[in-house]
Write a structure and sequence with these properties.
It is built from ten helices and 13 strands. It is α+β, with helices and mostly antiparallel strands. It has two domains: 219 residues, 2-Layer Sandwich (Sulfite Reductase Hemoprotein, domain 1), CATH 3.30.413.10; 124 residues, Alpha-Beta Complex (Sulfite Reductase Hemoprotein, domain 2). A five-stranded mixed beta sheet has the order 1-2-5-6-7. Strand 8 and strand 9 form a beta hairpin. Helix 5 crosses helix 7 and helix 6 packs across helix 7.
């Protein structure tokens, strides 16, 4: 496929690939289930922060021949550096930079609030968790009052190099008013102090490890010289939730009596003819035949179909099985290399081990894909 044509077509659909790679703030992620939440929509914040940290568009327009009108439609044109967009300067950042928003939901069965960390926020350079105000009686008055920010996480580790895999540390509590200013300041501190000589030592996690979390706090507080970036010390034992893969049926958190279905997509590969079914054909069929459905990708490379009516749940599952979803294809000799489309050969429901596994989709350009093979 022609890459230039592909990127141009993607932009015309309203999506952009500008921050997909390189030394910049990567695409910001948020819990997909929270899109329908009556408490906190992590997607809305992820979009807002993603737009602020989106790269300047001039080179993108020139290289891929993007019509500027599509960028204007998303308010990505004419942003002001340091005001409505991050000022990357001429050298961009020292290394890639990742930001994630977790979520919180109300468990109506057990009558309690449950934090949702499907984004694994402490594995990111910056992770943001909503902190709610709840008096214990009136659910309708519940609102997000502050954001607990974590800094310095990262999973990457390479043998023979001075690298570490580490969880982000609690940094501080920000009000909604101060959060964007605080995120900008944290990234600017990394831009100024992060290592630019050794790429193996260039992420924020190494700066936090070497300088210490209190040093980073002081840099952020006084970055503008007058101490106007305000935040409180973090809640050290704050419960930011378990890692939920959001697989199977999940009640949509908007009091609509509608449902979401999380579909397991092995290693994020939506393809036909595999031993896991004809997934590409399945997704196309479902989206064409259930017109009110909304489709999300999850932080763990799966798909989430939302806005499904209660009466359609059984039919929806049956339609997925029609494409082989939920089972591995084998022949009578238990040979998984026989990719027959005969539905009578479907066997072996996905195991818990398989559904908890994952590998990088970047074959053959990423070392992590060795785990896939």
């Amino acid at each position: 496929m022609n890459v230039v044509d592909a990127i141009r077509d993607i932009s015309e659909s309203g999506f952009f690939t500008m921050n997909g790679c390189g030394d910049n703030t990567r695409n910001v992620i948020g819990c997909p289930l929270s899109y329908h939440s009556t408490i906190f929509n992590a997607n809305l914040w992820a979009q807002r922060v993603g737009k602020y940290f989106a790269l300047p568009t001039a080179a993108y327009i020139e290289i891929f021949e993007i019509d500027p009108k599509y960028l204007r439609d998303r308010d990505l044109e004419n942003r002001i550096p340091g005001v409505s967009r991050f000022d990357y300067g001429q050298n961009q950042l020292n290394r890639k930079f990742k930001v994630a928003f977790s979520a919180i939901h109300y468990d109506d069965v057990n009558k309690k609030y449950v934090p949702d960390n499907c984004v694994e926020l402490r594995t990111n350079d910056i992770g943001i968790a909503p902190v709610i105000k709840y008096d214990g009686t009136d659910i309708s008055s519940t609102k997000v009052e502050e954001f607990q920010v974590y800094v310095g996480g990262g999973q990457g580790q390479q043998s023979g190099k001075p690298t570490i895999s580490i969880l982000g540390e609690p940094f501080g509590l920000f009000t909604e008013e101060n959060l964007m200013k605080g995120l900008d300041a944290i990234v600017r501190v990394q831009k100024e102090w992060g290592d630019r000589h050794n790429r193996h030592w260039a992420r924020l996690k190494y700066l936090v490890t070497v300088k210490g979390i209190e040093w980073v706090r002081e840099q952020v507080r006084n970055l503008d010289g007058v101490g106007s970036i305000n935040f409180e010390l973090p809640i050290e034992d704050y419960d930011h939730g378990n890692i939920d893969l959001h697989l199977g049926w999940i009640k949509q958190p908007d009091n609509s009596n509608r449902w979401c279905f999380g579909a397991f997509i092995e290693n994020g590969r939506i393809i036909d003819g595999s031993h896991n079914g004809d997934l590409k054909a399945m997704v196309k069929y479902l989206m064409n035949n259930y017109p009110h459905i909304e489709l999300f990708t999850t932080p763990n490379q799966h798909l989430m179909f939302c806005n499904i009516e209660e009466r359609l749940k059984e039919l929806f599952e049956r339609d997925m099985k029609m494409f082989g979803y939920g089972f591995r294809k084998v022949n009578s000799d238990n040979n998984e290399n026989d990719f027959t489309t005969d539905m009578t050969t479907l066997s072996h429901a996905y195991s818990k081990l398989r559904m908890s596994s994952g590998a990088c989709v970047g074959r053959d350009t990423c070392r992590l894909t060795y785990t896939d093979s």
